[in-house]
């Protein structure tokens, strides 16, 4: 009986030895993973300074490159570091100086000089300045601009303010909503801005009297009114800034919004820099535009809300235009009757 048991046990010895070998192999891998230095030593050949110089210079083979999405960038992305330095050391401070500086200038201007009031009492006779289609385009573009400016500022600076105030959970939801709104409303803003610029282009061609307007600071220098047509020098300057810088901001935004048309990382990085600098500059100038069109100048806001301006306002700010259309002025009572009859902007005659 014992002889039978011993013979039966002999075949288990090779099986036990095989299990021991497998166990030792598995345990050695586990120990290697638990030891990062040991793992690096067995998984990667020695990485010395010369190897990293090769990686940076682009002379290494495919094992040192990012091959995702047909990319051929090195694992050390020098252009990405350049972009980061530009964004953090130059673009972000520029935005704070431009936007914050404009707010300070506007506040000082209002305190020292104050609102520009009309030079004489209102006559009660109105001139049509902005038809309904232009007003609708203006307010739509203005609303989109404000939303994009706020979400863009949040993307650039918000983490330094709201994250510390409200915590990570609120901040994550806020930044996600800002990014979605910015990405989807940006193209719509671009389309409508181009339509608006095309609609008012005829009023914004430079004229000789615009030079005098700038030399006299729009009327701040001297006591006489400065000649201006339908649009004065400042309004024309704002138009052409939008038509140049604004188009650059739109184009660079589209490059980042649709990254599936073959543009590489370098293109995306430069588009980001151009977009940020242009948008921050426009935001600063827009604050001045908003100030002048609202509390900074009596009667200016009425033109873009009702479409009509008083004769006195037209003579003060756009005297050359007033001389062209003064015969078309209508009284407030007549306008009221037309509005009651659903005439809208259909005045008896329109300015040319």
From TrEMBL:
SUPFAM superfamilies: Transmembrane di-heme cytochromes. GO terms for biological process: anaerobic respiration; formate oxidation; respiratory electron transport chain. Its cofactor is heme. Residues 129-307 form the Cytochrome b561 bacterial/Ni-hydrogenase domain. Keywords: Cell membrane, Electron transport, Heme, Iron, Membrane, Metal-binding, Signal, Transmembrane, Transmembrane helix, Transport. Residues 1-32 form the signal peptide. Residues 331-342 have a biased composition (Basic and acidic residues). Belongs to the formate dehydrogenase gamma subunit family. NCBIfam families: formate-DH-gamm. This is Formate dehydrogenase gamma subunit. The lineage of its organism: Bacteria, Pseudomonadati, Pseudomonadota, Gammaproteobacteria, Oceanospirillales.
